[in-house]
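Saturday, quiet lab. Running sequence design on the structure tokens for the scaffold JK sent over.
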């Protein structure tokens, strides 16, 4: 009989704790909007004003992190940290061949014994985009997502992602390409 009473009490406390957690998550979600605050925004740029069929084009993605927050490095310092990564949707017109992530900078936090590698401010990623040799002239949307977990000095938000979009204009090989966004590509690593 005593075991039955203890099981009921345990079950009630467990349900109460679970209900409290859901209420807390709901309040936090309402306070920040669905998915929490928008901490990272992205922009994507090509190194030329267009691309030729069969060509490999250079693409840079700039991720802007809100002040007061940091996100984990692509290769996090600790196994349990969620890495920052970018993924692009498949397209018949082109294929992303590689993505180059910058090195984060080491930061020390009170709750850790050693510094961890994180990104703050603006992060520039480089990528190589192979245009299909059969791609017809026209404009194509490159879409993807920049996945990250944002933290401040006290807490981490749930992992989320920011959309990445670029318009890739394909022109015939006879049309000369003009350099574009050179100030961005001076610092975006491609290898």
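Result came back. Writing it out in full:
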């Amino acid at each position: 009989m005593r075991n039955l009473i203890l099981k009921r009490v345990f079950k009630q406390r467990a349900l109460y704790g679970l209900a409290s957690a859901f209420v807390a998550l709901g309040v936090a979600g309402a306070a920040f909007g669905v998915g929490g605050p928008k901490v990272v925004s992205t922009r994507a740029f090509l190194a030329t004003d267009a691309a030729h069929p069969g060509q490999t084009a250079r693409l840079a993605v700039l991720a802007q992190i809100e002040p007061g927050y940091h996100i984990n490095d692509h290769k996090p310092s600790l196994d349990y940290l969620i890495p920052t990564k970018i993924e692009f949707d498949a397209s018949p017109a082109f294929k992303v061949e590689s993505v180059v992530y910058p090195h984060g900078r080491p930061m020390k936090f009170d709750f850790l014994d050693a510094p961890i590698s994180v990104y703050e401010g603006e992060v520039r990623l480089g990528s190589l985009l192979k245009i299909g040799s059969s791609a017809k002239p026209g404009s194509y949307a490159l879409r993807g997502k920049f996945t990250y977990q944002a933290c401040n000095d006290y807490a981490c938000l749930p992992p989320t992602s920011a959309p990445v979009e670029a318009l890739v204009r394909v022109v015939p090989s006879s049309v000369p390409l003009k350099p574009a966004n050179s100030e961005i590509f001076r610092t975006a690593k491609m290898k």
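Notes for JK: Helices lie at 2-32, 182-185. The radius of gyration is 23 Å. Ask whether to fix the surface positions before the next round.
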